[in-house]
Amino acid sequence: MQQPSTWFADVQSYLRSPEFASRKQAMVARCRLLQLLLDPVCTLDFLAPLLVRLYLVPVFWMAGTKKFANFEQTAAWFGNPDWGLGFPLPSFMVLLAASTEIVGALFLLFGFAVRWISLPLMFTMLVAAVSAHWQNGWLAIATGSGLFATERTVGAIERLGKARELLKQHGDYPWLTANGDFVVLNNGIEFAATYFVLLLVLLFMGGGRWVSADYWIRKHYLPD
């Protein structure tokens, strides 16, 4: 069996050899070729921020309009310290949150002031994650196993199993699940954190080229 010191010396000798230098040069050339093959994709880089914006538009539009549609109930939940969030000035907080979400959805749709509107929307998601979802853990939908499963989600899945048994015994289960299976809403921070990360991307990237108002405003009024 070769001694470690001898093996290490052989490796050092090979790394200094012309054969290794030739192989390294060939590998670098292949990597450069692969990079050149990817470069044309950069002409479509506007698609990434566009799709992120369009993904977030209905999220914030529905969240904001739902708050206004159920204003009194939402304000009661915002303000109640026992079964709600316990916020001060709950009606004002609902008005502020809903307005931010609706205006944010419109700005994201048209690509206007994308980086600026990302900031209050990120703050809204941060407040929502800490105040309404943090105590429930990470998962939005309960699971009984996996990295983010907790006693809460495991217990929820056990109860879901019992509920399914009852529905199979006393209900038309195929009809009940024809449009989707039953799950337990865990209401963790997963969705709020995901939206926060997407908004963070927009904060750095902006609305993107060609299909955002920001691009044309900058092009015509703020030339480099």
Could you outline the blueprint of secondary structure elements for this entry?
Blueprint: H1 4-15, H2 18-38, H3 47-69, H4 71-79, H5 90-110, H6 114-133, H7 151-170, H8 173-176, H9 190-205, H10 213-221
Helix pairs in contact: 3-5, 3-9, 4-5, 5-6, 6-9
What's this, in brief?
This protein is an all-alpha fold and 224 residues long. It has ten helices and no strands.
Describe this structure in words.
By secondary structure, the chain is an all-alpha fold. It folds into three domains: 4-38; 45-140 and 187-221, no CATH class; 141-186, no CATH class. Helices cover 69% and strands 0% of the residues. It is built from ten helices and no strands. The chain has helices at residues 4-15, 18-38, 47-69, 71-79, 90-110, 114-133, 151-170, 173-176, 190-205, 213-221. α6 (114-133) packs antiparallel against α9 (190-205). The longest helix has 23 residues, at 47-69. The termini are far apart. The model has no long low-confidence stretch (mean pLDDT 88).
Given the C-alpha coordinates, what overall shape results? extended
Helices, by number, come to: 10
Helix-strand string: HHHHHHHHHH
Strand proportion: under 5%
Q: Mean pLDDT, rounded to whole units?
A: 88
Helix content: 55-70%
> What class, by secondary structure content?
mainly alpha
Number-wise, the strands total: 0
Radius of gyration from CA coordinates: 27 Å
Number of domain modules? 3
Which segments are poorly predicted (pLDDT under 50) over 5 or more consecutive residues? Answer: none
